[in-house]
Amino acid sequence: MVDRTLDASGLRCPMPLLKTKLELNSMAPGEELEVIATDSGSARDIPAFLELSDHKLMSSSEAAGQYRFVIKCGG
User: Fold this and answer.
1) Residues 2, 4, 11, 13: which is the catalytic one?
2) 7: Cβ–Cβ under 8 A, 6 or more apart, which residues?
3) Is the peptide bond before 14 cis (omega within 30 degrees of 0)?
4) Model confidence over 4-63: pLDDT tens digits?
5) What is the pLDDT of residue 42?
6) Which helix (H) or strand (E) holds 43?
7) Quick check: helix, strand or coil at residue 57?
8) What is the pLDDT of residue 75?
């Protein structure tokens, strides 16, 4: 079960990534954030950002043009 959900549906790149960063900054280490986005750039941008951060991508999926990511907030 995730601690927070960020619905970035309808937002264009780079807004889903920027909102994801802001949300993670306000979370405690170990909490999980679910991000929902419809911009196809999110499928590339969010995992690329997480590779360079302390946060961990727990899962990602795509269905019917909707991208979902579950991210564990790092320390």
Assistant:
1) 13
2) 36
3) yes
4) 999 999 999 999 999 999 999 999 999 999 999 999 999 999 999 999 999 999 999 999
5) 97
6) helix 42-51
7) strand
8) 84
Task: Locate 51 and state its tokens.
Answer: 């590779």
CB 60 within 8 A of CB 68: yes
3 state SS of 6:
strand
Residue with tokens 């995730």: 2
Q: Of 42, 34, 36, whose CA–CA distance to 13 is shortest? A: 42
Contacts of residue 73, defined as CB under 8 A and 6 or more positions apart, other chains included, come to 24, 27, 28, 29, 30, 31, 32, 33, 55
What local confidence, expressed as pLDDT, does residue 57 receive? 98
DSSP state of 52: T
Tokens of 53: 């951060």
Q: Is 73 labeled as catalytic in the residue annotation? A: no
Note the pLDDT of residue 54. 97
| 9 token code pair | 């549906």
**55 vs 39: CA distance, rounded Å:** 21
